[in-house]
Amino acid sequence: METENKKIKIARLFFEMHKTLKRSMRRCFEDIGMTMPQSFVMGILVKSGEMKLTELSREMKLSNSTVSGIIDRLEKQQLVERTRSEKDKRIVHVKATHKFHELHDEFVDRAEKSFESLLDTATSEDMDIIINGLNVLGKILASSYKE
């Protein structure tokens, strides 16, 4: 197989794996009543803590109005809290609620189990090969990606 064809095959395989993982995660999120975009918001808030809505929008690379709609739905589920700045009422802060933090560990556990089930048929040797291959791919991508 030519080098160019191998590169395209790698890209296609990576894309297919991404779709499979995304489908699996979507099912996991749906089980707890959360969409993928909502889960991205929550993941960012868990990592970063309280944020301005504009910062969250920038991080997600989405418009303020789109993120605000996502926040509206999360607020109805009592998973986030929105507050206005005392100094400047135009500034809106968003943070994960206590309720979300209580659910977070359960969700992480479910997500891990979902991912593990995808690899149930893999042998230990298969997993070693996958790990090594992904490490090689990660290094190649990191060395060729210049931002």
Description:
The protein is mostly helical and 147 residues long. It has helices at 3-31, 36-48, 53-60, 64-76, 98-118, 124-144, and strands at residues 51-52, 80-84, 92-96. It has two domains: 1-31; 34-110, Arc Repressor Mutant, subunit A. Strands 1-3-2 form a three-stranded antiparallel beta sheet. Strand 2 and strand 3 (92-96) form a beta hairpin. The longest helix is centred in the N-terminal third of the chain and has 29 residues, at 3-31.
The general outline is globular
Number of spatially distinct domains: 2
Assign the CATH architecture of the largest domain. Orthogonal Bundle
The major sheet is characterized as:
3 strands, antiparallel
User: Under the CATH scheme, which class of the largest domain?
Assistant: Mainly Alpha
- Helical stretch count? 6
**Strand order of the main beta sheet, please?**
1-3-2
CATH topology of the largest domain: Arc Repressor Mutant, subunit A
What would you say about this model in short?
Helices cover 71% and strands 8% of the residues. With 147 residues, it is mainly alpha-helical.
Question: What's the topology here?
Answer:
Layout: H1 3-31, H2 36-48, E1 51-52, H3 53-60, H4 64-76, E2 80-84, E3 92-96, H5 98-118, H6 124-144
Antiparallel strand pairs: 1-3, 2-3
Q: Keywords, please?
A:
about 150 residues, mainly alpha, Arc Repressor Mutant, subunit A, 2 domains, 3-stranded antiparallel beta sheet, 6 helices, globular
